[in-house]
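User: My instructor asked us to take a sequence, write out its structure as tokens, and then describe one feature of it. I'm not sure where to start. Here is the sequence I was given:
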Amino acid sequence: MKRNNRIGTVISTLLRGVVLGGLLASLPPMQNAGAQEQTVRLAIGYIPHIQFAPLYVGIEKGFYRDEGLRLEIEYGFGMDIFSLLQAGKIDVGLSDSDQLIIASSKGVDLRAIFQYYQKYPVTILAKADRIRTPGDFQGKVIGTPELYGTSWIGLQLFLERFQLKDKVKIERIGYTQIPTLLADRVDGVVCFFNNEPIQLKESGVRIVQWNVKDFSPMVGASFITSTSILAKKRDVLAAFVRATEKGIRYTIEHQEEGYRISYPYIGKPDSSRSKFFQSVLKETCTLFETAGPYGSMDPEVYRDSVATLKRLGLIDRDVPVEQIIQSLR
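Assistant: Let's start with the prediction itself. The structure tokens for your sequence are:
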């Protein structure tokens, strides 16, 4: 997932097909929709996308309805999810857990309640005719979307793993990884495992890639709420967890149907893009895999992630896992 924590334009979509207008930040705090049906407002700092298929499946298959829930999703690049949670303007946000740990180290009182990605999605890739091994990056340029956030952390883990710190030039390129790489303006790019590599391969570009998940246990994205919302809506959030787990399981087991269900939610892409989105969904499903129930949060993985972020100098103290995650199972 690509996202950051700066306020930007918000595209609001009710996942029952009703389009909302206005900025999410201007909305008043949530109120219960009624005794029979509770509204859960979820914010995602991206656009409607096939990587969120389990949510669309959960709505269309009635998993949320069966739990007495009405799920609304608000989308927006640059959405400040943590601030919206603290203000009580949303119930849940989908964000990167490394950013949650950093925020928690600064005293922000939020909790992960469901692990969406069990593995870190960042990858570093290059064209195979320019780079063959990590060592080939010495003296070369790697482009990264931003100099902060999950992509930046993934790059630091790559440089650390292959002893490349201070041996490569890093350039901020925004979210232009593919055109920048194809134009040879950089030698490698930081991107996401379930997106750009698929596009390049389907375009016939020979690439090499190093997935951070293959050498680092850094925790992936999760559904996050605040302790205040937890205290008020614990049962509602527990129902959200149950329904979302069902959505993930069904999507993994019925990927072709999952794509068809998601099709109207992601803007009805033309048939030439169908193969790409199905491939993205297939790779995304591998990020959900876990030994336990889907959405399980592993305290040990969070402890390792805290230690890693401290080693990288991104936090200055240890953060107890109890201040980061809260199981609702």
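For the description part of your assignment, you could build on this observation: The longest strand covers residues 38-44. Try explaining in your own words what that tells you about the chain.
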